[in-house]
Amino acid sequence: MEKMSRVTTALSSNTISGRTMFCHLDAPANAISVCRDAAQVVVAGRNIFKIYALEEEQFVEKLNLRVGRKPSLNFSCADVMWHQMEENLLATAATNGAVVTWNLGKPSRNKQEQLFTEHKRTVNKVCFHPTEAYMLLSGSQDGFMKCFDLRKKESVSTFSGQSESVRDVQFSMKDYFTFAASFENGNVQLWDIRRPDRYERMFTAHTGPVFCCDWHPDDRGWLATGGRDKMVKVWDMTTNRAKEIYCVQTIASVARVKWRPERKHHLATCSMMVDHNIYVWDIRRPFIPFATFEEHKDVTTGIVWRHQHDPQFLLSGSKDSTLYQHMFKDATRPVDKANPEGLCFGLFGDLAFAAKESLISGDANRKPYPGGDRRYPIFFFKKADPTEQFAHVSSALSVFGTDLDSNRMDWFVKTAQLYLLSGKPFAELCDHNAKVARELKRPQVSTTWTMLRIMFSDPANLIAPGLNLSLGKLGTLPLMNSFSMKEMGTGIGTESRLERSKGESRQDNIHLEPGNILINNNNEENEETEGSEAEYMFGDAELDDDDLYSMEHENQTEEQEYTLPQEAFPLRHEIMDNPSAPEHLQQDKADSPHVSGNEAEVTCLTPIESFSLISISQPLFSPHLPASFFCPIVREMLSYYAEQGDVQMAVSVLIVLGDRIRKEIDDLTQEHWYMSYIDLLQRFELWNVSNEVIKLSTCSAITCLNQTSTTLHINCSNCKRPMNNKGWICDRCHQCASVCAVCHHVVKGLFVWCQGCSHGGHLEHIMNWLKSSAHCPAGCGHLCEYT
Questions:
Q1: What is d(CA 135, CA 145) in angstroms, rounded to the nearest whole number?
Q2: For the region Disordered, what residue ranges are annotated (predicted)?
């Protein structure tokens, strides 16, 4: 081997300084490794193989080891390691099964030195011996581990784990001849490099593949392992059998685990999927991370502490094509955000509360628990340890009993049994359900049903029975209806005298019947149709615009078209050839107390003299709001009930409203509501209601629930043989199998069948029989039981 030399000079000082920083890579990284003096880091991946210098403020690219126009698969790396004794020696595990060593001291561009191609499948891990310069260990997907002497051109030892693929291999930091290997079948093996024929020890560490392992740098007996079961376990290997001494539960599969330097109980982990963060755990507190680094946007593939004696700098590479240096002081501390108290309800309503004992005993105003509600006081004490990082804490757990009557669910059962969800018109369903809720002392739910009926009922149903005109028709009228007195002929003025005073209410004098036509265009005499009794009197002034609008809004059920003759000036002469008015109109005019002597005379204008225009305004929009206007409000209302735990109301309204609201709520939310309600119904054994809800549902995932497990295998009550056909006639004895054992008639409804003796009958008959006798009514002697 050629004499190795440094590519760059070492740091001028033994102290390491820097900050949290990152750099963008050309491709995703699969693994990283740092040199002995912590001045440089190598990044390896499928399409990247570079060395970066760690400067004060940034990463600086120093060398690209992928050379040549078409780099071979030897440059595609699954793992990389920098030798901690020889500062210019690297080793990589290639995806094509090759193990490659690299000499950074070579003067040529290609730094590749040796190539070992003994593995048949991908090499997952390479590891240098911590003190031996020329010893290299590899673990492959083919299930073999090989030990290479770099002074030779082939491996010197081959270790067969007699198992599935090897995921990690690590030399012991304290024991010269020992290395550990982790396998995909959940086992961990310890080997002596002097005995390649058989492992020294094997134990099952995880329930799934073991992806990584790492020896403790200070305690020679501690081995940390991580697997797909989302656990990190610490094993004491000094005993005859491997002993699990710590276990950390994470939230994702553990891909890498590295002990933190100078901290006995700290280790760092990262996941191979789902979770992108890096966690530093204190194994004495296994349920919450000690520190978290959240900078990466994709899966973290490699982590390494920058220096073996410095716990403040952590390097990481990721599939997001970034290389990070993390300062430990910049890490997030989840424990600072954790809730120091715990609160939980039990199955029967008991409430458990856990908190620091100092918080409970230190409250002088705290009243004692009445009636012995505080039960099972449990105290947890920790012995004070001056070297322990965590504060001395004592906790107290209190359990409070509750009155069972306060948590009764009778209202739920009665509501489910009494609600109507289909079979009647929408308005009747709402009224019935509102009445049910009102009788069960649930006024808010009752009011909600009433409001739903008002919002979504047909507007014609909301008008009084005596009025035949729908409010919705007003929206179809033109904005302005204008009439010219010239077009009305000469006969209309006789009956259209306005006799209403200005101070009198207009509503009392408007009697227009719907369906009447004010002007008959087919009649040359233009007589007013029978039933039109509009009589007005403006008094001394003309009717202004405000009065017109006011009149329009106060009389929503008036005739669509009518005229208001304008007679604010004296008449010149009478028109004697006009037809007489109807008798009932003349009688009303004579009896009116507001009509003077002159005004009682039948007078009218000539067509030429009445050239004026009267305009009647209509509303700009329909007074009735469409049903779609209320959909957002109803959607929020349903979400509110579901969040409050009343999923029964949410599902019931969803079924009753049907297509009116279904499109406003996404399918996943509907399915969640349905499943929650069905689960509650089945817990209370409301099977019929549950089946009705399933049938009325429109979610495909819900409707298929009662289509599964519908086959019932029964025996014939006569010959006791299994029924093979689909009917109720046995194909062997040709007798009806559904005959009631009590009344001996064929059962056409609910049929109760005993699995012990195969006899059965009507539900009511069997229940009444078993009240007085425990034996089968068929006389077979079997002790039937109905539950």
A1: 13
A2: 578-597
Tokens in use for 370?
């009445």
Q: Taking all residues of the chain, what is their mean pLDDT, rounded to a whole number?
A: 75
**What are the pLDDT digits (tens) for 714-740?**
777 677 677 766 666 777 777 777 788
Give the Cα separation of 657 and 698 in Å (integer): 12
Helix %, strand %, coil % of the chain (to 5): 20, 25, 50
CA 782 to chain centre: 52
With 0-12 / 13-18 / 19 or more C-beta atoms within 10 angstroms meaning exposed / middle / buried, residue 339 is exposed
Q: Is the sign of the CA dihedral 35, 41, 45, 47 positive or negative?
A: negative
Angle at which helix 647-657 crosses helix 426-439, to 10 degrees, equals 160
Q: How far is it, in rounded angstroms, from Cα 86 to Cα 81? A: 12
Low-confidence ranges of the chain (pLDDT < 50): 1-13, 363-388, 460-560, 577-617, 620-621
Write down the pLDDT at residue 570.
54
Distance CA 392, CA 381 (A): 8
Amino acid at residue number 733: C
Q: How many residues does the chain have?
A: 787
What b/e readout covers 302-324, taking b as 16+ CB neighbours within 10 angstroms? bbbbbbbeebbbbbbbbbbbbbb
Is 549 strand, coil or helix? helix
Long-range contacts of 758-764 (CB under 8 A, 24+ apart): 758/714, 758/715, 758/716, 758/717, 758/720, 759/717, 759/784, 760/717
**Which residue has 């086992």 as its token pair?**
187
Q: What residues form DSSP beta bridges with 751?
A: 762
> Which residue(s) pair with 757 in the sheet?
none
Report the alpha-carbon distance of residue 459 to residue 471 in Å, rounded: 8
H/E run at residue 116: strand 112-116
Closest to 430 in 3D by CA, of 412, 456, 459: 456
Kindly state the DSSP code that residue 141 receives in the 8-state scheme.
Answer: T
CA torsion, ordered 712, 717, 719, 723, to nearest 10 deg:
-20
The rounded distance, in Å, linking the Cα atoms of 110 and 49 is 12
**Alpha-carbon dihedral angle through residues 384, 388, 389, 390, given to the nearest 10 degrees:** -40
How far apart CA 78 and CA 31 sit, in angstroms, is 7
Closest among 153, 159, 152 to 138, alpha carbons compared: 159
Within its chain, how far is the Cα of 483 from the centroid?
Answer: 62
Tell how many helices (H) and how many strands (E) occur in the chain: 14, 36
